[in-house]
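Before relying on records like the one below, remember that each one covers exactly one chain. Contacts with other chains, cofactors or solvent are not represented anywhere in the record.
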Amino acid sequence: MADDLLGHAADMLADRKATFPELHYLARQLSGSLRDVRRVAESRGARLPRRAAGYRMTGILQVATATQSRAEAVQLAQSLVSARLAAGARIAGPVTSVFRHEGECGTGAEWQLLLTTRADRYDEVEAHLLAHHPWRKPEVTAVPMVGGSKEYLHWVETATAPE
């Protein structure tokens, strides 16, 4: 229903011949829909656990991938940091990976690469990793940081700011 209403609103607003009563009716329908959305959000929000003291979304992500060698991990990390797409990287390994690939189970040694970046730069980080990673279908995952020291978060923000 929301998609239909939004589509109708877009069509009506694009039509320069829409009359005042038509626009008034559209505004009433949109207002009613927003009231419903607010009611549902408040109802669901009341059932969520309260945030612990100090919990906040930071706008910072930790992006993970893995490579077959330490040299590959270092090269990827350096390319992302020098492009200001990541503030820093941690490389750990070798770690043992157990996986299913092309219908078979396998085990191998990998080097884990953890990158710290701004959430608004994630698409660029992902594109960079996919373009420069030695694997055809590499792991590229991200998790939000929900807290951190003010100084560290500021450093990540400034180190990854577009030039």
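DSSP finds five helices and four strands in the chain.
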